[in-house]
Amino acid sequence: MNARALIYSFSHKPHIPPTDISAPKRSLCPDSRRHTPFRFRVQIQNREHYWVLRVSGRDSGGGKRRGGKVFADVKSEAYDISESVDKFEKGLNDVPSGKEEELEEEPLAVAEASWLEQFPKRWVIVVLCFSAFLLCNMDRVNMSIAILPMSAEYNWNPGTVGLIQSSFFWGYLLTQIAGGIWADTVGGKQVLAFGVIWWSIATILTPVAAKVGLPFLLVVRAFMGIGEGVAMPAMNNILSKWIPVAERSRSLALVYSGMYLGSVTGLAFSPFLIHQFGWPSVFYSFGSLGTVWFAVWISKAHSSPLEDPELRPAEKKLILASSVSKEPVKEIPWKLILSKAPVWALIVSHFCHNWGTFILLTWMPTYYNQVLKFNLTESGLFCVLPWLTMAFSANLGGWIADTLVSKGFSVTRVRKIMQTIGFLGPAFFLTQLSHINSPAMAVLCMACSQGTDAFSQSGLYSNHQDIAPRYSGVLLGLSNTAGVLAGVFGTASTGYILQHGSWDDVFKVSVGLYLFGTVVWNLFSTGEKIIE
User: Fold this and answer.
1) What is the DSSP letter of 412?
2) What values do phi and psi take at 101, rounded to 5?
3) How far apart are CA 49 and CA 419, in angstroms?
4) Considering only CA atoms, which of 239, 61, 233, 214 is closest in space to residue 147?
5) What are phi and psi of 71, to 5 degrees?
6) Within a 10 A sphere around the Cβ of 267, how many other Cβ atoms?
7) Please, are residues 372 and 440 in contact by the beta-carbon 8 Å criterion?
8) Chain-centre distance of CA 382, in angstroms?
9) How far apart are CA 178 and CA 231, in angstroms?
10) Residues 129/233, Cβ–Cβ less than 8 Å
11) Which of 245, 250, 252 is nearest to 396 (CA)?
12) How far apart are CA 337 and CA 473, in angstroms?
């Protein structure tokens, strides 16, 4: 704001007492006239946010002493007092006579800022992470739709399809722990940027690899897994630094709902693109979006609030007040981490959860096509409903979890409640599929199964930052490694089971693991910090 002064001129009437002018906006007296020369002295006081100039003097003719004040709303900068006196004298002499002059108030800095600048920076980071996970699942699920025309073109049997689907997890498995270590030591910004651009390039190369041969396709899908494998640890590292504890469940739920909406977008648009432009168009179009995200991320994101020069002081104070140490991790205490029972509860529960989740992610369109007899377009569209349900349920669960914590429920109790829903809900609805003959009811069961599954985002997926906030990236890498192993074995074994059994057998394995995970989680998990 520009410095400016509101000047009170001295009246020629000797009996009018001096008046303070403290309002920000004032009209000057219309009958003011120039004064006769007088001697004056100036006293300056700093009253924290403004300056007060006290002026007193006598007429050269020996009249009564008169006084007044001048208020200035100025920035606290070094100032030459001789200049201020000269300007003050000039201001007295330049007061217009017989006119009213309106001094307009300048808008506050807050009002001048754009809406985007006022939006909390920590939630800008959350939205960008949400967008990254949206692209992550768009690029992942497009294969589950494109595999149908691809298998027809290249004569792949169910075993080969299962091998292709699982090859993604070979690379995904390799970078879980490595991505966590990298994020905790280097910073989440660089790691997540690398992951997005890497998997986007691999997505674009998928059609070329398929035409060259099956081994090349398997390698490219594994390369894509390498890029997506670092995304979760990097995101977890960033949010552990940017998000206060009271907003943890909601922020993570929003980011993970990006995965679900990515599945919705991929499953909804893939059939259309395949019918209009052929199956390679899915990989070309989806993969190219990653370059756009990369450009925005590099210009807007920072690994921690301490590195952001544009972060407002009030928001920085809010974030740092309830945060852990922002010093980079130099050494990982592996022995300490692996000696804790809650860590193993996380690892086992993550395995049990991901077995069912990844089977539905990769095999759901095939189930709709083979069992419910939906065509390619219908399979893609009906697959959208469960993922929409998950996006809604994840954010609902995050709001419920944060509300319970704010009302005094222990974090441990909240995490156990949310994860129990995330296990027992899918287990119940999957058991109902074998008793249903209606396609509509089967789709509804799938939607309810996935919807209750999403409560896990406020359970085990929020627990890494609870028990070891400084090592949250490494800890997520550890538990997600187990989750990826579930994806590798679950996706590949589903193809084997379908060759020798039925879909009921596939669902029974998932239900058994959900029940086992429920027991382990409620016995050994905690929401308290166990590793400093």
Assistant:
1) H
2) -125, 120
3) 52
4) 214
5) -105, 140
6) 26
7) no
8) 28
9) 11
10) no
11) 250
12) 13
pLDDT tens, 160-193?
888 888 788 788 888 888 888 888 888 889 999 9
Cβ neighbours of residue 474 closer than 8 Å, sequence gap 6 or more? 177, 180, 181, 184, 233, 329, 332, 337
pLDDT digits (tens, 9 = 90+) for 242-295: 888 778 888 888 898 888 888 888 888 888 899 999 999 999 999 999 999 999
Which residue has tokens 């390619």? Answer: 376
Q: 369: helix, coil or strand?
A: helix
At 58 the three-state DSSP class reads strand
For 5, phi then psi, to 5°, come to -125, 145
| CB burial of residue 105 (10 Å; 0-12, 13-18, 19+) | exposed
Grouping H, G, I as helix, E, B as strand and the rest as coil, residue 32 is coil
Strands 51-59 and 38-46: antiparallel
The residues near 252 (Cβ < 8 Å, ≥ 6 apart) are 239, 398, 457, 458, 461, 462, 465
DSSP secondary structure letter of residue 305: G
C-alpha to C-alpha distance for 419 and 414, rounded to whole angstroms: 9
Task: Give 488's contacts (C-beta < 8 A, 6+ positions apart).
Answer: 166, 169, 170, 173
* Three-state DSSP state, 281: helix
Inter-CA distances, 161 with 165, 171, 220, Å:
6, 17, 15
CB count in 10 Å sphere of residue 31: 9
User: DSSP 3-state assignment of 148?
Assistant: helix
Q: Are 192 and 231 in contact (CB under 8 A)?
A: yes
DSSP string covering 451-475: HHHGGGGGTHHHHHHHH-GGGHHHH
